[in-house]
TrEMBL record:
Protein name in UniProt: Putative ABC transport system ATP-binding protein
GO CC field: membrane protein complex; plasma membrane
InterPro entries the record matches: AAA+_ATPase, ABC_transporter-like_ATP-bd, ABC_transporter-like_CS, ABC_transpr_LolD-like, MacB-like_ATP-bd, P-loop_NTPase
GO molecular function: ATP binding; ATP hydrolysis activity; transmembrane transporter activity
Xref: SMART domains: AAA
Record family assignment: Belongs to the ABC transporter superfamily. Macrolide exporter (TC 3.A.1.122) family.
Originating species: Mucilaginibacter pineti
UniProt KW Nucleotide-binding keyword: yes
Key words of the record: ATP-binding, Nucleotide-binding, Transport
Length: 253
C-alpha cells in the first residue's frame, strides 16, 4: 500500500509502497510508546521515555517543560525530522517509524509546516524565494503569485526582494511563517517560535500564527517556554526528564 494510503481518494503520482495503519480521520497525530535514546560517554542516555498522546485534527496544542526535558526532540520525531529508538509516530494516517529519510521528507512536503526558533531561512535566497521553495518542490503553479500573497498576509509584501541578513529577527520569523504555510500544511509544528524575539515582536508573531492557523484550519503543535503563549492553545502537554507528566485542556479547549 502506498504511504499516502488514501482515505480521501487522492495521492501524489510518486511514492514508495509500504504498509501503514489507518487511524481515525479526527486524529492527525498519534504517538505510541515513543522513546529516544543516544549513546553518550559509553552509556545510553534516554531523552524521551515511553511518550503517548494523540492530537485531534484542527486543534491547537502546546508542549512545555524545562530546558533539556526533550521537547524539541519530541517535536522533531512528530514531524519526521528524526527517527525514534522505539515506539511509533503516525502522521495523517502514515506510520513514519519505518520510512527512509527521503520518504519522511516526502511526507513533510505534502503534510507538514515547520517554524524554527532560528528561522532556518536560506541566506542566498530572498524572502520571496524562500517562501517559493516548498511550492517549487511540489511543482505547484502560480508559485510567485502565491508566495507574494503569503508575504502580504504576514505584512512583508514590500520586503520580498530582501535577503535574510537584511531583515530583522521578527521579519525573518514572519518569512518563516509564510514559508511554513506555503504548502497548505495539515499540521504546523513550531519550535520556540518567539524564543529569539522581543516581547512586542513576539506578540505580533503569535497573533499571526493563530490567525493563519484559524484561517487555514491547520492543526498546531507548538513547543514553548512561554506560558502565556501555551495558554492560548486548547491543550498543554508537559514534559519533564523525558517523561510526559501532565496533559490538560485549557479554558480554550
Amino acid at each position: 500500500m502506498d504511504i499516502y494510503a488514501n482515505r480521501a481518494g487522492n495521492k501524489p503520482s510518486t511514492g514508495a509502497s509500504i504498509s501503514i495503519k489507518i487511524i481515525p480521520l479526527e486524529t492527525i497525530l498519534n504517538i505510541l510508546n515513543l522513546s529516544k535514546t543516544y549513546q553518550s560517554a559509553g552509556r545510553m542516555l534516554t531523552v524521551l521515555d515511553n511518550i503517548n498522546f494523540a492530537i485531534a485534527t484542527g486543534s491547537t496544542n502546546a508542549i512545555v517543560g524545562p530546558s533539556g526535558s526533550g521537547k524539541t526532540t519530541l517535536l522533531g520525531l512528530c514531524a519526521g525530522l528524526d527517527r525514534s529508538s522505539s515506539g511509533s509516530v503516525e502522521l495523517n494516517g502514515i506510520n513514519l517509524s519505518n520510512l527512509t529519510e527521503d520518504q519522511r521528507a516526502q511526507v513533510r512536503n505534502q503534510h507538514v509546516g515547520f517554524i524554527f526558533q532560528n528561522f532556518q531561512l536560506l541566506p542566498t535566497l530572498t524572502a520571496l524565494e524562500n517562501v517559493m521553495v516548498p511550492l517549487e518542490l511540489r511543482n505547484e503553479r502560480n508559485i510567485k503569485a502565491r508566495a507574494l500573497d503569503l508575504l502580504d498576509k504576514v505584512g512583508l509584501a514590500d520586503r520580498g526582494h530582501h535577503y535574510p541578513s537584511q531583515l530583522s529577527g521578527g521579519e525573518q520569523q514572519r518569512v518563516s511563517l509564510a514559508r511554513a504555510f506555503s504548502n497548505a500544511p495539515k499540521i504546523l509544528f513550531a519550535d520556540e517560535p518567539t524564543g529569539n524575539l522581543d516581547a512586542e515582536t513576539s506578540e505580533k508573531v503569535v497573533k499571526l500564527i493563530f490567525d493563519l492557523n484559524k484561517e487555514a484550519g491547520t492543526t498546531l503543535v507548538v513547543v514553548t517556554h512561554d506560558l502565556e503563549l501555551a495558554a492560548k492553545t486548547q491543550r498543554i502537554i508537559r514534559i519533564k526528564g523525558g517523561k510526559l507528566i501532565s496533559d490538560e485542556k485549557t479554558i480554550n479547549g
